[in-house]
Every structure is written in structure tokens, then in C-alpha cells.
Automatic annotation (TrEMBL), chain A:
Cross-referenced CDD domains: TM_PBP2
TM spans (from-to): 27-49, 97-120, 157-176, 210-235, 255-276
InterPro entries reported in the protein's UniProt record: BP-dependent_transpt_permease, MetI-like, MetI-like_sf, OppC_N
Record's bilayer topology term: Multi-pass membrane protein
An example Gene Ontology CC term for this record: plasma membrane
Keyword tags: Cell membrane, Membrane, Peptide transport, Protein transport, Transmembrane, Transmembrane helix, Transport
BP GO annotations: peptide transport; protein transport; transmembrane transport
Ranges for domain ABC transmembrane type-1: 93-282
Family according to the record: Belongs to the binding-protein-dependent transport system permease family.
This protein's name: Peptide/nickel transport system permease protein
The organism of origin for this protein: Celeribacter neptunius
Keyword Nucleotide-binding attached: no
Cross-referenced Pfam families: BPD_transp_1, OppC_N
TrEMBL record, chain B:
Coiled-coil region: none
Family affiliation: Belongs to the ABC transporter superfamily.
Organism of this sequence: Celeribacter neptunius
InterPro entries per the UniProt record, alphabetical: AAA+_ATPase, ABC_transp_ATP-bind, ABC_transporter-like_ATP-bd, ABC_transporter-like_CS, Oligopep_ABC_C, P-loop_NTPase
Keyword match Nucleotide-binding: yes
UniProt name for this protein: Peptide/nickel transport system ATP-binding protein
Primary localization class, coarse: membrane
Membrane topology: Peripheral membrane protein
Family matches, as Gene3D superfamilies: P-loop containing nucleotide triphosphate hydrolases (3.40.50.300)
Signal peptide limits: none
GO biological process, one term: transmembrane transport
Length: 297, 602
């Protein structure tokens, strides 16, 4: 006999804004802070960096010709050619952010678009799209990327496009599965009986449910894409030297890991921290944006 | 499972402990059972100080609405409480063993062997990738050191005991190859194969059709008589309670409200809650309670169906050609007139929901459906959309039918937005108004669906259906998932809305008692075709078709003194509506036996 007594929830009815909720989460704020820091660093690299990233400094090498360890004049030390690693990491952030955010974002968009279309409409449209996705999945990613990068003149933007083009498949697969499950749910049928159009159903009722999954795939994709860019650079079809990227700094120096570990460790840590930051932020956003979690916190 | 020795073990019997009629030593005693859940810091009590005793061969019903703790109690007896829940007081004694004090390994030996359990949904309780035979023999061998072949022999005997047709064949089949009723028989066979002292049946027939429910209830009673098993029957259905139980424990939100022998409870309930619960139970009458209108031929119908067929293709073979068709709906025709409630009733798979889906355009159909004078199908997208305004649908499960990520106010206002009616303020005002109209506070429109109870959610769905002021609302099993007291109030709401808005209902249900209470006219469906159609008085007062009679007879009667006429036990299942290409079901011809009462011949 309690039908009319609503569950009491401790959450105040006036919803705190997304920002206010974000500020309450320490981990999310850490992630956001790091992303902002890296972005500012990348934008103002010329002002912050003490040296040019491709300048081979005489004092950057020891008398035996070995790179300098971090500390003193060189914050992050120097590399094998006597270039300042701090400057290279700062400038490298430009490349890596573009790859990690733009290329990855593009991949997510393509994947979501194809996945949602195939999952919602099914039929022959779905069959064609998903077989194409399977074909792309079966293709060796590296081979495809090398072919594409070799055809076009290698540049940062081309590399970003190439990475987006080979990285959308996993997203498309999971979005497809999720969408086809959602399309069977009764509330979608209920919307159809109200006369809702396809676009309305897709954007108001299907996409919001996909957001948590897209966020997870998006943050996971950042480290993958940054490393794929590094691989391509290493193979000579990525970002061309001397333009630095976090990935190619690692690959240039990995053979000297024992003698100069900072050359691998510092850019590696940057990739890790960036991916982690996006992940923490994404996680928090997912929870904040999910109304079904309301009242549970 | 730490049983803190609490209060009175046995000696001073709590007032609730009343032993069964043939007293003796009770098989199972539940004494002051308290179940709690850990909840931020503290502990919340879910079941409070519950006591009862169960004698040999006795059936004790634990009855109550959802959230009353009846299923929790059964899980606690089995020692299967979910992590986070624990027995925080009291004891469960099987003869002299305190189950709450036993370690898990000892409990495992008892489960299935001395205390067995059957669940509501037999499909999820059976392992889908093992044959019936394998699962039965495994259950037997888990408790008794018998050889595989001996176990198979016993499994076969168990299947025969539950009167399953072709038991040898069933042994080699997988759960999905059996119907719901057959699966529940297998579960019972598995539970009774080891001749347990106590059988816990948790809503054993809730997921089944009425005629199948009747078979399973009969079976349980026969088996109990043969083996002297004590049964704890957990159910929300007072009809089932009246037919099966010797004694009844009424639970409400974890508290024991009343314990009484079944006849006393129904004849003279002591507590107000029990009285309310019994009053809310829909009772099957003979259709004469109120004046039901005969077919008002003069008016133009809101919805008119003639020769409607819905068929689904089943593809097979390498080329995935259509090899079979499911003939879900065959040559169905009826009219729904303004302001009336027309019901479609029948068991699962009879095609009643498919008709609803065809009416709202969710499945393609053949034949002619006319809504408010327009023929459905062959319309432009614009006209289709306009037609949607006249026909709305309320689904069975309101949680599934509401987008969980939208605020309920937006959901109710959405139809207006889709059809471009009003400004955003006026839509919001309309939503508030509709909330008020369906008995919800208008201040709740900024909440999300998960913050409401089941009955409230169904009210939200009804408000959304009303937003466009439709002429016809299809209620597809709309009250089936609700507790009886909530169900009664939602039905009242539907009736009062009909009086206010003059809307017609197409009411689809498997529940004969609910249909009898709300309908003006009724069509009974069987295997995709209508077998009987007429006013309520005609169909319930003078049922002509054998299937209609069977349906009405199968309904459990919430009156323990009701003597069910002896009839041969029903067995067998509804034949399949799947035909290979080119074949068709035989067409039933409806004959008018007077005053528009149509009955299928043959």
C-alpha cells in the first residue's frame, strides 16, 4: 500500500551543475588539470621552452658525447644529439594531442556513425556496413596505415587521418552490438508509437545510452593512437623528423634505454598520464551525466 | 551466517508459531528469523522476526506483495542470501539441525537433498547448454552415490512422475526445446527426484499461462499427497493461496501481519491489511455484475479490423529462403466503438499482442485495419504520424517502456513535442496537469523513471498515452506486472479516465478476472484466431467454445471453500502456430448464436 509514497532520496532537487559536481571529484580534477596543463604547454611551447626543439646544443652532450641526465640546466636532460628533452616533450605534446584527440575523436565519430546506422537499421545497410567493418578488422592495421601513409605525402594531418581510418573498427563493432540491443528495447518501440521520427529516436534516445561506452573507448583509444603514431614515425611514414612527438622520442631512443632511461621514461610517463587523465575525467563525466545514478551517491 | 543466539529458542514459542493441523514434530521451524542488509554504516532490517513451523505434508503459503520479503525468507532458509545480506537473528531448524549455524559445505549437502527449491522462471533456472537428462542425473548423483545408469533410471522415473509426455525423448532434449509448462515440470521432477522433506516453491506458476498453471498446481498437489512433502509456497496470487495452502502467512514489508489456517483467513481476516489485500483481488464473476452494452452498431467504430493476418517468416537452409511461417494472427476481425473497452484474451502465443503491434504499426500486416476512418498502411509518412495521435499504447513493463535517461516530465511532454503542439512552457504545464490527472504529484516531473515504484511508472505511461488526447488506448498487459492492490487502483484510474475523456480501450490480457472486471466486450483468441466474441455477459455468463470454458475453469478461485469439480487432469501443450510454406491453419468460421455472440464452429 505504498504506491503513492515516493522513495525518499537525499539528493536535493535542484541539480548541481556538471561543473560543480566535477569540482567535488578529486581524481577527475587531477585529470582535467593535467589535460589543461599539457594543452597550455603545447600552445605556448615557443614561450616556455628554453631552447628550440631541433637545436643541437654543444653543452647538451658530455665530453664523451653522452646525453646529459635530467637536472641542472636541462630539466628533462638531453637526447643523443644534444637536444633539450624538455623542449622536445613540449613541442611533442602538440603532435601527440592532435593525434590523441583529433585522430581518436575522428575514429570515434566514424565508428559511432557506422555502428549506430548498422545497428539501428539492420537489413542490407547493416549487413554491408558490418561486413566492411569485419574486412577492415581482418586487415593488418600497420600494413594498411603504411600503405596509406606512403600514398599520401606524410604530414601530421595525414597521419591523423590515417590513424582515424584504421582505428574506428573496434568502436563500430561495440556500438553496433549495443545499438542493436537498444533498438529492441521497449521504450524505443514506445517512441515509435508516439510518432517519433528516426532522427529523434537516434539522437534523443539511442545516443545518450551509448555515451558511457563511447567515453570508455575514447579514453582507451588515446594511448593506442599515440603509440600507433609512434610506430608509424619509427617506420618512417609518420611525423617526419626532426618534428618531435612523444611516440617518436621513445622510438628514437629505445635502444639506449639502459644508458639513458629518462629518454624513454619521461615521454612514456607523459603518454600514460595523458591517457589516465582522459580516463579519469571520462569516468567522472559518465557518472555525472547518468541520471540513473542519481540518488545512489 | 553467524546466528547470534537471540531471544527465545523454542521453549517460549513466539505468538506466531502455530503448528499445522496434524502437528507432530514440525519438519521445518523458522524462529524469529531476521534478515538485514548492510547499508552505509548501519544495517537495515528487511525481514523482521518471522516465525512459523511447517508440518509434514503441509502446505504453507507465504503471501504478500512485492517487497514483502517472502522470497528473501526462502533464500535464507536455503542459505542462498546474496552477499551483503545476512541472517542477523533467529534460527531456521530442519528437524533438529539449525541451518543458519551450518557451514556452507554442510548446507550444500542438504540443498536439493532434504530442502529443494523451484523458481518462478524455469528457463533461467535450467542450464541452457545441458540436456534435461544430464541435468537430472547430475542433480541425483550430487547427493547420492549411485552409478550413472541408475541415476538415469531414477531421472526417467522422476520425469514420468511429473506426467511429462514422451519422457525418454525429453531426457535428450535441451531446455529451449520445451515449453514453459514442460520446463516447470522438469524443475519439479528435479526437486522431487530426491524426495526432499521440504519443497520451497517460489512463485512456481506466475510465469505460466492459466491452463498450464492449473496443470502444475494439480501436479504439485498430487505429488505432495504421494510423498508427504511439506511445501512452502511463495506467491502473490491469493487465488493460488486459496487453492493450495493449508495455512497462510501474510507478509508486509518484512513484517508478519497475520498467520491463520487458510479457511479462517479468507472467511474472517483479522488485520486491516489482509482485508485490503483480499478486497483488491480481482474475482471472476459471470459477467453480469454491471450492465454491459451490446455492440452499438449505429456508431462508427474507432478501430475496425477485418481479415487481418500477421505472419513472420522463418528462414532456413543455405540460401536462407523462407521455409516456414509463424501464423501469429489469422483472419482476425473486430470493431472497437467509441467509449467502450474491448478485450482480447488468450494465452501466450495466441497473437493478442501481435494485433496490438500491428495496430500501432510496429509489425506489418495483411488485411484491412481502419483507424478512425483511415486505412492503415499505404499512407504517407505525414499521414501515418497524424494517425498516431489517435491511437496510443501502454505496455506491460513500464520500466522498459520509459527511456531511463529522460526526466518523466519530458517523457510525458514528448508526444506533444513530436507533433509540434504548444510552446515548451505550455507543454510543461500540460505534463503537470496530466500528472495530477493520473494521481501523481505535479512536482515530480523533474525526476527520473527509476525514482518511482512500478505502479507510479505505469501511471506515467498512462499520462504519456493521454498527452495527445487519443481516441483509442491499447493496454497491452498493462496491469499484469503490478501487485494486486496497485493493479486495482490502476484499473480504477483507467475507468475514471474513460469516463472523463471518452477514450476507448483495447485491453489485452491473459488474466480472465481482470478482463471480466473491466471489459464491455471480449474476444477470446486461440492460436491466432478468434474462437469466441461477445459482450461480457455473453462470454463469461454463457461461454460456448470449449477453449473459453477451459480458460475460465482454470482460473484459481480466491475462496478456499470452493470445490473444484473433478475433471480429468489437463496435459499437453498448445500446438505450434508454425506451418511450412504453402500450408495454413484451418480457418475457423464464427457463427452468431444470438445478439452478436459469435462462436467458432468445430
Amino acid at each position: 500500500m505504498t504506491e503513492l509514497s515516493i522513495k525518499t532520496t537525499t539528493v536535493s532537487r535542484a541539480d548541481p551543475t556538471v561543473w560543480a559536481q566535477l569540482f567535488r571529484r578529486k581524481l577527475a580534477m587531477f585529470g582535467l588539470g593535467f589535460i589543461v596543463l599539457i594543452t597550455l604547454g603545447a600552445i605556448f611551447a615557443p614561450l616556455i621552452a628554453p631552447f628550440a626543439p631541433d637545436e643541437q646544443l654543444f653543452e647538451g652532450l658530455t665530453l664523451q658525447g653522452a646525453p646529459m641526465a635530467p637536472g641542472g640546466q636541462f630539466l628533462f636532460g638531453t637526447d643523443l644529439l644534444g637536444r633539450d628533452l624538455f623542449a622536445r616533450v613540449l613541442y611533442g605534446a602538440r603532435t601527440s594531442l592532435i593525434i590523441g584527440v583529433v585522430a581518436n575523436g575522428l575514429a570515434l565519430m566514424i565508428g559511432t556513425l557506422i555502428g549506430v546506422t548498422a545497428g539501428y537499421f539492420r537489413g542490407w545497410i547493416g549487413a554491408v556496413l558490418m561486413r566492411f567493418t569485419d574486412l577492415m578488422m581482418a586487415f593488418p592495421v600497420l600494413l594498411l596505415a603504411i600503405c596509406l601513409a606512403a600514398i599520401f605525402q606524410p604530414s601530421l594531418w595525414i597521419v591523423a587521418m590515417v590513424i582515424a581510418f584504421v582505428n574506428w573498427v573496434q568502436t563500430a563493432r561495440v556500438v553496433y552490438t549495443e545499438t542493436s540491443a537498444l533498438a529492441e528495447r521497449e521504450f524505443i518501440a514506445a517512441e515509435k508509437t508516439l510518432g517519433a521520427g528516426t532522427l529523434r529516436i537516434l539522437f534523443r534516445h539511442i545516443l545518450p545510452h551509448l555515451v558511457p561506452m563511447i567515453i570508455v573507448w575514447g579514453t582507451l583509444g588515446i594511448s593506442t593512437t599515440v603509440l600507433l603514431e609512434a610506430t608509424l614515425s619509427y617506420l618512417g611514414v609518420g611525423v617526419q623528423p626532426p618534428t618531435p612527438s612523444w611516440g617518436n622520442i621513445i622510438f628514437e631512443n629505445q635502444t639506449y634505454f639502459q644508458a639513458a632511461p629518462w629518454l624513454v621514461f619521461i615521454p612514456g610517463a607523459m603518454i600514460l598520464l595523458l591517457a589516465l587523465s582522459f580516463n579519469l575525467l571520462g569516468d567522472a563525466l559518465r557518472d555525472i551525466l547518468d541520471p540513473t545514478q542519481r540518488g545512489m551517491r | 551466517m553467524s546466528a547470534q543466539a537471540q531471544t527465545t529458542p523454542g521453549a517460549v514459542a513466539a505468538p506466531g508459531i502455530a503448528t499445522g493441523p496434524e502437528a507432530g514434530a514440525p519438519v521445518l521451524t523458522v524462529d524469529g528469523l531476521t534478515i538485514s542488509v548492510r547499508q552505509d554504516g548501519g544495517e537495515a532490517v528487511l525481514v523482521d522476526n518471522l516465525s512459523f513451523a511447517l508440518g509434514r505434508g503441509e502446505t504453507l503459503a507465504l503471501a504478500g506483495e512485492s517487497g514483502s520479503g517472502k522470497s528473501l525468507t526462502s533464500l535464507a532458509i536455503m542459505g542462498l542470501l546474496a552477499p551483503g545480506l545476512r541472517v542477523s537473528g533467529g534460527a531456521v531448524r530442519l528437524r533438529d539441525t539449525d541451518l543458519t549455524a551450518l557451514p556452507e559445505s554442510a548446507l550444500r549437502g542438504l540443498r536439493g537433498n532434504r530442502v529443494a527449491m523451484i523458481f518462478q522462471e524455469p528457463m533461467t533456472s535450467l542450464n541452457p547448454i545441458l540436456t534435461i537428462g544430464a541435468q537430472l542425473t547430475e542433480a541425483i548423483r550430487a547427493h547420492e552415490p549411485v552409478s550413472k545408469s541408475d541415476a538415469r533410471v531414477r531421472a526417467l522415473e522422476a520425469l514420468k512422475a511429473v506426467r511429462l509426455s514422451q519422457p525418454e525423448k525429453r531426457m535428450t532434449q535441451y531446455p529451449h526445446e520445451l515449453s514453459g509448462g514442460m520446463r516447470q515440470r522438469v524443475m519439479i521432477a528435479m526437486a522431487l527426484a530426491l524426495e526432499p522433506d521440504v519443497l520451497i516453491a517460489d512463485e512456481p506458476t506466475t510465469a505460466l499461462d492459466v491452463t498450464v498453471q492449473r496443470e502444475v498446481l494439480d501436479l504439485l498437489r498430487d505429488l505432495q499427497r504421494e510423498h508427504g512433502t511439506a511445501i512452502i509456497l511463495i506467491t502473490h496470487d491469493m487465488g493460488v493461496v486459496a487453492e493450495m495452502a493449508d495455512r497462510v502467512v501474510i507478509l508486509k514489508q518484512g513484517q508478519m501481519v497475520e498467520v491463520a489456517p487458510v479457511r479462517d483467513l479468507f472467511a474472517a481476516p483479522k488485520k486491516q491489511y489482509t482485508r485490503d489485500l483480499l478486497a483488491a483481488v480481482p474475482r471472476l464473476g459471470d459477467g453480469s455484475s454491471a450492465q454491459a452494452l451490446p455492440e452499438p452498431v449505429s456508431q462508427t467504430p474507432i478501430a475496425s479490423l477485418s481479415e487481418v493476418k500477421v505472419r513472420f517468416d522463418i528462414r532456413g537452409g543455405i540460401l536462407s529462403r523462407v521455409t516456414h511461417r509463424v501464423h501469429a494472427v489469422e483472419n482476425v476481425g473486430f470493431n472497437v466503438y467509441p467509449g467502450e473497452t474491448f478485450s482480447l484474451v488468450g494465452e501466450s502465443g495466441c497473437g493478442k499482442s501481435t494485433i496490438a503491434k500491428a495496430l500501432v504499426g510496429l509489425v506489418p500486416h495483411l488485411g484491412r485495419i481502419e483507424l478512425n476512418g483511415h486505412v492503415l498502411g499505404g499512407l504517407s509518412a505525414q499521414d501515418q504520424k497524424a494517425l498516431r495521435r489517435d491511437v496510443q499504447i501502454v505496455f506491460q513493463d513500464p520500466m522498459a517502456a520509459l527511456d531511463p535517461r529522460m526526466r518523466v516530465g519530458d517523457l510525458v511532454a514528448e508526444p506533444l513535442l513530436i507533433h509540434g503542439i504548444g510552446s515548451s512552457e505550455s507543454r510543461r504545464a500540460t505534463a503537470r496537469e496530466l500528472f495530477d490527472r493520473v494521481g501523481l504529484s505535479p512536482d515530480w516531473i523533474d525526476r527520473y523513471p527509476h525514482e518511482f515504484s512500478g505502479g507510479q511508472r505505469q501511471r506515467i505511461c498512462i499520462a504519456r498515452a493521454l498527452a495527445l488526447r487519443p481516441k483509442l488506448i491499447i493496454c497491452d498487459e498493462s496491469v499484469s506486472a503490478l501487485d494486486v492492490s496497485v493493479q486495482a487502483r490502476v484499473l480504477d484510474l483507467l475507468k475514471s479516465l474513460q469516463a472523463d475523456f471518452g477514450v476507448s480501450y483495447l485491453f489485452i490480457s491473459h488474466d480472465m478476472a481482470v478482463v471480466e472486471n473491466i471489459s464491455d466486450r471480449i474476444a477470446v483468441m486461440y492460436l491466432g484466431q478468434i474462437v469466441e466474441m461477445g459482450t461480457r455477459a455473453q462470454v463469461f455468463g454463457n461461454p460456448q467454445h470449449s477453449y473459453t470454458k477451459r480458460l475460465i475453469e482454470a482460473v484459481p478461485v480466491p475462496d478456499p471453500s470452493f470445490e473444484r469439480p473433478l475433471r480429468p487432469r489437463l496435459t499437453g501443450d498448445i500446438p505450434s502456430p508454425i506451418y511450412s510454406l504453402g500450408e495454413q491453419p484451418e480457418r475457423l468460421l464464427l457463427k452468431n448464436i444470438g445478439d452478436g455472440h459469435l462462436v467458432a464452429v468445430g
